[in-house]
Amino acid sequence: MNIPLLGSGGREHAFAWKIVQSPKCSRLFVAPGNAGTAQIAQNVALSATDFPAIHQFILDNSIEMVVVGPEEPLVKGLVDYLHTQPKTENLPIVGPSQLGATLEGSKDFSKRFMQRNGIPTAAYETFIADQINEGLAYLEKQKLPIVLKADGLAAGKGVLICQTLEEAKESLKEMLLDAKFGDASSKVVVEEFLTGIELSVFVATDGKSYKILPEAKDYKRIGEGDTGLNTGGMGAVSPVIFADAEFMQKVEDRIVKPSISGLAKEKIDYKGFLFIGLMNQDGEPYVIEYNVRMGDPETEAVLPRIKSDFVDLLSGIANGTLDNYQIEISPNYATTVVMVSGGYPGNYEKGFPISVPSQTENSVIFHAGTSRNAKGELVNQGGRVIAVTGFGEKLEQALANAFSTVEKISWEKAYFRRDIGQDILKLIK
């Protein structure tokens, strides 16, 4: 198959790395890609949200399946667009319809979906600017801490955990009245704070059947000990020791099954990945949020553990034949450490040359915010720059292999967290 993969991050490099291992892929294009994807596939200077250009590219390159990495083109309706254009009406696409993508595009929509389908989640109310006084009054009656979520897409940064009533009120005003997160916070979901341990569960679905992929735990805060600002993610670990067989059975019965059947019942066209952000609260699973694509950096820890043919999985999703796919998962650990530009998630400088080892042992380097400068040097181009995934039969080995490679990568002002996986190691011991 000739396959275009849309996106440019570490998730897309991991997808590309996995896709090219399959004999079912003859040519892989990545649009727009990064310096890492350019080493294993053909980068194409196309924006993932330039729908007419994507359609023309499909027609010009005998494309047989499209794989969408990030959420933005899905929320903006890429799948619907392609399925209403000439010669792509029946094109297999890995990614949900625009209505399906609203599960991530609107926190309020997803909470209503959970309520309708009896899926366990935190209590909540939603407010718009005209309801600011009601929102402030609602806050006064809630337990602290309290969670405020921008309704729309905010690049993983639109969630605030407020420890005091004063902070919560000020934040609600900033979000609704001062557009703290732009249009994304024109509506705000105020949600009960759940205690416990977070994890991410990934489900592949063709709209009828589903396969549960390896679970992972990610690390969202910039600082060690989970301190500081939220980021897109600073690392990930898979498998997760606190997601044992009993817990995962609860997840499947109470969350996965009603989610997939709810999509079918509500006639929401959904062929893609459903990322379920969960809280394990005293052994009981609650949904924090849905995302409509694979997570980043969790993908870099999850995909290496899938041993069965990945293009067969993607094809099963897009063609409605997922029931025939037998997923095989490695029992070994994969741990990912993300290296970021100094100053991220705030302002940071770009264009510093990056030194990367030519070979690695028991680890793989996934590029995210990288490019080549005029001299052909590898440079940092984004906030999250490189994700290193280490492998091992035990968590200690996987972490040691990841950090061993991280220590061999350098550029000016590079930063990474040294405590990735340490909390899980303590649980194991």
Automatic annotation (TrEMBL):
PROSITE patterns: ATP_GRASP (PS50975). It catalyses: 5-phospho-beta-D-ribosylamine + glycine + ATP = N(1)-(5-phospho-beta-D-ribosyl)glycinamide + ADP + phosphate + H(+). Residues 111-319 form the ATP-grasp domain. This is Phosphoribosylamine--glycine ligase. It comes from the Bacteria. It holds the Pfam family GARS_A. PANTHER family: PHOSPHORIBOSYLAMINE--GLYCINE LIGASE (PTHR43472), PHOSPHORIBOSYLAMINE--GLYCINE LIGASE, CHLOROPLASTIC (PTHR43472:SF1). SMART domains: GARS_A, GARS_C. Pathway: Purine metabolism; IMP biosynthesis via de novo pathway; N(1)-(5-phospho-D-ribosyl)glycinamide from 5-phospho-alpha-D-ribose 1-diphosphate: step 2/2. The lineage of its organism: Bacteria, Pseudomonadati, Bacteroidota, Cytophagia, Cytophagales. Keywords: ATP-binding, Ligase, Nucleotide-binding, Purine biosynthesis. GO terms for molecular function: ATP binding; metal ion binding; phosphoribosylamine-glycine ligase activity. The gene is purD.
